[in-house]
Amino acid sequence: EIVMTQSPATLSVSPGERATLSCRASQSVNSDLAWYQQTPGQTPRLLIYGASTRATGIPARFSGSGSGTEFTLTISSLQSEDFAVYYCQQYNNWPLTFGGGTKVEIK
Amino acid sequence: EVQLLESGGGLVQPGGSLRLSCVTSRLSLSTYDMSWVRQAPGKGLEWVSAFRGTGGSTYYADSVKGRFTISTDISTNTLYLQMNSLRAEDTAVYYCAKAWSSGWNYLDYWGQGTLVTVSS
Q1: Do B45 and A44 touch (CB under 8 A)?
Q2: CB-hemisphere CA count at 13 Å for B38?
Q3: What is d(CA A4, CA B84) in angstroms, rounded to the nearest whole number?
Q4: Are B54 and B31 in contact (CB under 8 A)?
Q5: Which residue numbers of B have CB closer than 8 Å to A's CBs?
Q6: Which residue of A has its CA nearest to B101?
Q7: pLDDT by 10-residue block (mean), chain B, 120 residues
Q8: How much is the pLDDT for B28?
Q9: What is the pLDDT of residues B41-74, one digit of tens each?
Q10: What is d(CA A23, CA A8) in angstroms, rounded to the nearest whole number?
Q11: What are the pLDDT digits (tens) for A8-43?
Q12: Mean pLDDT calculated for residue range A42-60
């Protein structure tokens, strides 16, 4: 099983600032990496797939990068609706696995 | 737009069984892979099981292997998760989710979830 590790667990950021979230895989997943956003009480929403491709309707302030074992999600200028928990997920191998999540909170 | 609607959750005693259903609309279960993902209260996302639309292969997390069974009914566009020998640690909201396509298992549509509580 590929273990996905996200850091930090919590990120405190002021509105308008940049947020950088990390995700590491225990072995290479190539670019088979997705990011999801979950706001309180809501279902997860797909943000990024293929490590760097934004899903339909996702604002350009969200960007993904990386390949192999190291990945980054960057939110260039945090808006109020971006304060949420973010998960990475690999789909290179079965079983599918998620990271533990990074909570982005208001500083 | 694709819609996914789960049902079947509830309170069950340890060792009991439940069957979750996910009725889908505007998608063919013979074309897309589908997954069940769960989220324990206050915890993160945990993938549980998947059904490959093409070929019908099934996959399970180690934590549920041998206890849970995923299946589909193409005629009613319904995805199922039969859960047996339930444990307290199976308590979670269970989501069904659609993969982008068969073989590309990032999850682009999610249902609203159904809560399963395992407690005596």
Answers
A1: yes
A2: 22
A3: 28
A4: yes
A5: 35, 37, 44-47, 50, 59-62, 95, 99-100, 104-108, 110-113
A6: A91
A7: 96 98 91 96 97 92 98 94 98 96 90 97
A8: 86
A9: 999 999 999 999 888 899 999 999 999 999 999 9
A10: 9
A11: 999 999 999 999 999 999 999 999 999 999 999 999
A12: 97
CA distance B96 to B72: 12
Determine whether B26 is exposed, middle or buried from the number of CB atoms within 10 Å of its CB (0-12, 13-18, 19+).
exposed
Q: Do B106 and A34 touch (CB under 8 A)?
A: yes
Q: What does the pLDDT read at residue B109?
A: 96
A81 φ/ψ angles, rounded to the nearest 5 degrees: -75, -5
**CA distance, residue B55 to nearest chain A CA (Å):** 16
Q: List beta partners, residue B83.
A: B18, B68
Q: How many angstroms away from the CA of B14 is the closest CA of chain A?
A: 26
Backbone angles phi, psi at B89, to 5 degrees: -75, -5
Give the nearest chain B residue to A33 (CA atoms).
B106
> Do the chains contact at A95 and B95, CB–CB below 8 Å?
no
